[in-house]
Automatic annotation (TrEMBL):
CC terms in the record's Gene Ontology section: extracellular space
Main localization of the protein described in the UniProt heading: secreted
Species whose genome carries this gene: Callorhinus ursinus (Northern fur seal)
Subcellular location(s) of the protein: Secreted
Name of this protein: Transcobalamin-1-like isoform X1
Annotated GO MF terms: cobalamin binding
Signal peptide segment: 1-23
Similarity field: Belongs to the eukaryotic cobalamin transport proteins family.
Domain Transcobalamin-like C-terminal residue range list: 356-432
Keyword set includes Aminoacyl-tRNA synthetase: no
Length: 434
């Protein structure tokens, strides 16, 4: 009798001795799941589950098992139409993300997706990226974040890519990992996920290859992980709040490359949970990037042959429920300084905007007051508006130019549509190279 009572205890003890995976340790517990409600709420709101921008949101909701079958079916059907109608104009990374979202898991019967067709198109877009690098001093058409997404999708969906080329271009010293000499944690994290997929496909024998390439890839992962960990802040974030989610995924899949004391994932998770409660992830893409890691998932869990998990409609959120993503703007006015800086020439204006306005509102006001000096255009991206031209001068990936946003001399870590300005701010758009 006594012995049989002890058995479960012994089992528990043995279980606790088995080393647990970082992703399991860091996963938000069942009891704490309600902390994720604001994220899911932001993501499911009707406006943001439409268009190609929805890819990351869909991928995240499906990996986390947050949709019911009807929602999944509806969103996927809609998304297939979007991909079909926009495919020729999609960048390589957008298509890669779309493939990851569609193939995150096996959806309801009756929806058939021609993966091989999409993957073939992606292979061509990836080739065009490499070609641009060869012709333009190593600069891709887009950037290494997107090239990493390409390799990840091609690897997971049996597409065509050259392993030696991957080993060559993803060297951690490559300039494309850096903006202004600053290591991009987002980019490094996505590269680790891509390289890990390639490495796994080599070691599982799907890809017969020179061991030298495998060694190189292994080394790249090790160095990239070191760089990501070097960007850990005191409160445990990796890079900044928006790069942390994907960096966590990179660290989950490469726990052999660092010591347990180099990353206390619970600390990172707890800081993130605190930030959620303070409304840090109001943007659907930001919410989408952090959610998988908090569920203990990574983009390497994408598997089109694995049935989706449904029914955990735990928050009972309908797709129709709208949610405001813009911060409240109050009636009182504030004054800010705004300048356009091109090389050594600076044109300055003082504008008055409503309290709570964002950077973009300031630019609009300046343009209204003096179109000759302050005209600009913006493009909608999954992170909100991206400033493409100012006074007719256009940003260009082939020569690594862009319009940099600054406040009081410091580059912003938010885009023009989300950075809330303060009275007296010295705001600047500066013609820069990265
Ligand atoms: N996504 C992409 O292709 C973008 C990849 C990314 C690494 C991205 C950050 C990370 C991510 N998770 O999506 C990225 N940024 C890149 C590559 C770039 C470059 C874009 C040009 C190119 N080569 O394709 C570039 C020019 C260096 C760049 N980002 C500029 C900027 C500034 C935008 C200013 C403008 N003209 O509008 C800005 C505002 C920095 C500044 N001070 O000027 C900027 N980026 C920021 C802040 C960000 C973060 C956005 C955070 C937020 N809450 O708004 C970012 C998440 C992101 C988007 N950039 Co870039 C990085 C971060 O802070 N963690 C793939 C596609 C399919 O979706």
């Amino acid at each position: 009798m006594r012995q049989s009572h002890q058995l479960p205890l012994v089992g528990l003890l043995l279980f606790s001795l088995i080393p647990r995976q970082q992703c399991e340790i860091c996963k938000v517990s069942k009891e704490n799941k309600t902390a994720l409600k604001p994220l899911v709420h932001t993501m499911i709101s009707s406006n943001y589950t439409k268009g190609i921008q929805a890819a990351k949101v869909l991928l995240s909701l499906r990996l986390g098992g947050f949709l019911n079958q009807n929602q999944d079916q509806h969103l996927i059907e809609q998304f297939i139409l979007t991909v079909r109608s926009t495919e020729p104009s999609l960048t390589s990374g957008q298509l890669a993300l779309a493939i990851l979202a569609l193939g995150a898991c096996k959806g309801p019967d009756g929806i058939s997706i021609n993966y091989s067709e999409l993957v073939k198109i992606l292979g061509n877009k990836y080739k065009a990226e490499i070609k641009n690098m060869e012709d333009h001093d190593g600069n891709p058409l887009t950037n290494y974040y997107q090239l990493s997404l390409d390799v990840l999708a091609l690897c997971l969906f049996s597409g065509n890519y050259s392993v030696p080329k991957v080993a060559e271009i993803f060297k951690p010293g490559n300039k494309n990992y850096y903006f202004h000499k600053q290591f991009s944690v987002d980019t490094g994290a996505m590269a680790v996920l891509a390289l890990t997929c390639v490495k796994r496909s080599i070691t599982s024998g799907q890809n017969k290859i020179d061991t030298k390439d495998l060694d190189n890839i292994d080394n790249h992962i090790k160095l990239l992980i070191r760089k990501i960990l070097s960007q850990k802040t005191e409160n445990g974030l990796l890079g900044n709040i928006d790069s942390t989610g994907e960096a966590m995924q990179a660290l989950f899949v490469s726990s052999n490359y660092y010591n347990r004391n180099q990353w206390v994932c619970q600390k990172t998770r707890d800081t993130v949970l605190k930030e959620i409660s303070q409304g840090a992830f109001r943007m659907p893409t930001a919410a989408a990037q952090i959610l998988p890691a908090l569920m203990g998932k990574t983009y390497l869990d994408v598997n089109k042959d694995f049935s989706c998990v449904y029914g955990s409609d735990i928050f009972h959120i309908s797709t129709q429920e709208p949610i405001s993503v813009t911060p409240a703007v109050s009636a009182s006015q504030i004054k800010v300084n705004y300048s356009v800086v091109i090389n050594n020439a600076k044109d300055r204006i003082v504008v008055s905007v409503a309290n709570g306005s964002v950077f973009l509102n300031v630019m609009e006001q300046a343009q209204k007051e003096n179109a000759a000096l302050f005209s600009f255009t913006a493009e909608e991206t999954s992170w909100g508006p991206y400033i493409t031209t100012v006074r007719g001068i256009k940003a260009n990936t082939t020569d690594r130019t862009y319009w940099e946003l600054l406040s009081n001399g410091e580059p912003l870590s938010k885009g023009a549509g989300s950075y809330v300005v303060h009275a007296g701010d010295d705001l600047e758009v500066r013609w820069s190279t990265y």
